[in-house]
């Protein structure tokens, strides 16, 4: 989709004529980017196709123009498995195009690309690796020192393999590599979808779906985990037009430095379950742009020099994280640490330009699913495991199919039977949960986490080089807390509170820069918050320029009461900000759903609003606090009216109103109600 702010579900209609007799399955969750596989195609045939997208915000269906392509006939390709022994299948004939003709399963390694000029085309088939081994193994491993290509299929991790297994692995290869059209699914401890360890150069990774269900890692420090990890030694790296989904730590992690490193137009929805799990971590000299991140977790971590970071879109939320501090300590602690949008950190983050990005973090109140739901939806429900118990007692539940690390499920909850409340897990061992159970376990149990609040900090600044010269301009940063005034508090590391701040400073106490220099220059941005504009872990004494910005206080979902929207930054910085030609908009009076001004909030306000909406393009406020006024604000206002309406004739529930498409239904009910109350209700 062209508009980075939009998402949709989609399918591809295709066939041998423009009637388009076939179609792929409609995707289940809206995304900006889309990857579909057309199956059953024959070589040498012309096919017609079009993309169908349904906007879940509006219900509108859109169709691309009908296009066509002709499938190739690869007469000279080698068909696999054929007579080749394996697995593992060693592809060692130079300049050869290999085509997989059937699904392949391997107890250990599946494929090794071992010669220059090899292309492995999976042709829509599935490669399963690591079905039954204690060793670290790989689905496809590049071991050649020449060009290699992997494309068109699925690489899936099996039931049992060693830590740090990878769907796709390249090690110590400064050689041209291309990967496209691949979908991964990994799930065991420390597994990677794609891992390029050391000396990566001349790499093109595009049009893939990198999916991981991994929930366990060795440490959040080194090596951590990522959906795509690459250690760069040369350059000419481009990673673009990929979907990256879930995982438990990082999204795209690039280490070291290179020339012509570009990461763009990727759609990332990762799940940070361990501290410092950012969606994007650029290497030095990289250009990251036009990426869309709708993650449950942190956004971007800038720690190196000369990074260009621009035109990216972040729509984030988050919760508590697991932390091994010091590294390797056990059990993991559950820490409530700030949720960063874009973070500058360290001595080496210098000469970086961050511009034209959109970063919104709206933190909701804690949620408890009671262990209902499936692990595939853990981002929403917190459910990590659904299994069958072998037995239970008053203080324990046993599952002999498991092999857990000691303490793995400490501080989680177990739903063990209907009719009893979930129980807090005080300890876990190899196959046993320790918890106070009020009854016997039922036929299934789930282990889940209650998601807790962490403070949003869309711009987090920890630049420790006084001469760093970093610059932030032309961005929109939004920080929202769901907490009311009486519940707002501030705390230390590991339990930081429930506030929100558009800018957060961390340990910015290294002194002043030389005249004309600065650690960071923040100018010409828009900052929107319902709580704080500036916050700090300690008084800021470094040279920080904050000039020509627009700070807006919003009343959505409510506004907190503060004597000042600055906290703990120190008088010198407060003075500089107030003298820096910054604009402060503190009026939130427009945020009133009583549209007709009769002192009540009910269905007639919806009618008046919709009538005004028909007469004008003005939306009467940024009701969903995204920095824009558009149709999505209509939905937000109507939901606000529903949430406060006392009209008994209203048959709709708040959950029923999710999209602009639902407005037509609600409007019909509103006008029906209007007929019964008469025009005097307006």
List the helices and strands and how they pair.
Blueprint: E1 9-15, E2 22-23, E3 46-54, E4 61-63, E5 67-70, E6 78-80, E7 89-91, E8 97-100, E9 104-105, E10 111-113, E11 118-121, E12 126-129, E13 138-142, E14 148-157, E15 166-171, E16 177-186, E17 192-200, E18 203-206, E19 209-212, E20 226-232, E21 235-240, E22 243-246, E23 250-256, E24 259-264, E25 267-270, E26 278-281, E27 287-289, E28 292-293, E29 298-302, E30 308-310, E31 313-316, E32 321-323, E33 333-335, E34 339-346, E35 353-355, E36 358-363, H1 378-381, E37 383-387, E38 391-393, E39 396-398, E40 413-415, E41 423-428, E42 432-435, E43 445-448, E44 456-463, E45 470-473, E46 476-481, E47 501-505, E48 520-523, E49 526-529, E50 532-536, E51 544-547, E52 550-553, E53 566-567, H2 571-578, E54 583-585, H3 603-615, H4 631-644, H5 661-677
Parallel strand pairs: 6-8, 7-10, 8-11, 9-12, 10-13, 11-14, 12-14, 13-15, 14-16, 15-17, 16-18, 16-19, 17-20, 18-21, 19-22, 20-23, 21-24, 22-25, 23-26, 24-27, 25-28, 26-29, 27-30, 28-31, 29-34, 30-35, 31-36, 34-44, 35-45, 36-46, 44-47, 45-48, 46-49, 47-50, 48-51, 49-52, 50-53, 52-54
Antiparallel strand pairs: 1-2, 1-3, 3-4, 3-5, 32-33, 37-43, 38-39, 39-42, 40-41, 40-43, 41-42
């Amino acid at each position: 989709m062209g508009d980075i702010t939009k998402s949709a579900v989609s399918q591809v209609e295709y066939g041998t004529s423009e009637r388009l007799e076939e179609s792929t399955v409609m995707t289940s969750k809206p995304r900006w980017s889309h990857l579909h596989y057309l199956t059953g195609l024959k070589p040498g045939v012309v096919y017609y196709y079009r993309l169908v997208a349904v906007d879940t915000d509006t219900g509108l269906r859109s169709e691309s123009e009908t296009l066509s392509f002709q499938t190739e006939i690869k007469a000279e390709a080698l068909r696999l498995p054929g007579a080749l022994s394996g697995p593992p299948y060693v592809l060692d004939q130079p300049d050869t195009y290999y085509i997989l003709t059937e699904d392949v399963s391997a107890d250990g390694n599946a494929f090794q690309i071992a010669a220059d000029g090899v292309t492995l085309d999976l042709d829509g088939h599935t490669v399963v690796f690591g079905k039954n081994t204690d060793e670290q193994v790989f689905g496809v491993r590049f071991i050649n020192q020449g060009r290699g290509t992997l494309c068109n299929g699925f690489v899936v991790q099996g039931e049992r393999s060693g830590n740090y297994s990878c769907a796709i692995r390249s090690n110590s290869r400064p050689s041209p590599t291309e990967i496209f059209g691949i979908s991964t699914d990994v799930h065991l401890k420390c597994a990677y979808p794609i891992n390029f360890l050391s000396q990566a150069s001349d790499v093109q990774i595009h049009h893939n779906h990198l999916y991981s269900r991994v929930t366990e890692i060795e440490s959040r420090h080194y090596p951590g985990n990522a959906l795509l990890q690459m250690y760069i030694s040369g350059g000419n790296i481009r990673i673009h037009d990929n979907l990256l989904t879930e995982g438990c730590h990082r999204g795209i992690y690039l280490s070291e430095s290179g020339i012509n490193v570009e990461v763009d137009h990727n759609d990332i929805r990762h799940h940070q379950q361990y501290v410092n799990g950012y969606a994007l971590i650029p290497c030095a000299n990289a250009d990251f742009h036009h990426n869309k991140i709708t993650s449950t977790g942190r956004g971007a971590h800038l720690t190196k020099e000369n990074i260009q970071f621009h035109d990216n879109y972040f729509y984030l939320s988050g919760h508590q994280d697991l932390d091994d501090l010091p590294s390797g300590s056990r059990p993991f602690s559950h820490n409530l640490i700030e949720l960063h949008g874009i973070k500058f950190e360290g001595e080496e983050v210098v000469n970086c330009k961050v511009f034209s990005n959109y970063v919104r973090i709206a933190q909701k109140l804690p949620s408890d699913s009671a262990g209902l739901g499936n692990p595939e939806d853990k981002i929403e429900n917190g459910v990590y495991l659904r299994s069958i118990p072998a037995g239970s007692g008053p203080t324990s539940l046993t599952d002999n199919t498991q092999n857990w690390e000691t303490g793995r499920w400490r501080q989680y909850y177990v739903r063990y039977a209907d009719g009893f409340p979930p129980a807090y897990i005080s300890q876990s061992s190899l196959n046993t949960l320790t918890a106070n159970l009020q009854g016997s376990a039922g036929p299934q149990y789930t282990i889940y986490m209650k998601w807790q609040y962490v403070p949003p900090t869309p711009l987090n600044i920890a630049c420790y080089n006084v001469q760093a010269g970093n610059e932030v301009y032309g961005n929109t940063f939004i920080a929202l807390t769901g907490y009311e005034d009486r519940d707002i508090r501030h705390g230390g590391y590991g339990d930081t509170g429930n506030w929100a701040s558009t800018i957060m400073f961390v340990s910015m106490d290294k002194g002043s820069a030389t005249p004309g220099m600065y650690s960071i220059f923040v100018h010409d941005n828009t900052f929107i918050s319902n709580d704080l504009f500036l916050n700090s872990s300690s008084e800021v004494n470094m040279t920080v320029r904050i000039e020509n910005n627009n700070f807006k206080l919003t009343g959505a979902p409510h506004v907190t009461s503060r004597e000042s929207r600055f906290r703990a930054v120190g008088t010198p910085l407060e003075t500089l900000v107030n003298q820096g030609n910054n604009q402060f908009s503190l009026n939130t009076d427009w945020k009133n759903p009583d549209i007709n001004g009769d002192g009540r909030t009910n269905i007639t306000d919806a009618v008046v609003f919709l009538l005004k909406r028909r007469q004008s393009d003005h939306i009467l406020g940024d009701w969903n606090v995204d920095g824009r006024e558009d149709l999505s604000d209509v939905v937000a206002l109507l939901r606000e009216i529903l949430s406060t309406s006392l009209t008994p004739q209203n048959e709709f529930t708040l959950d029923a109103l999710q999209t602009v498409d639902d407005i037509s239904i609600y409007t019909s009910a509103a006008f029906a109600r209007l007929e019964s109350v008469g025009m005097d209700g307006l």
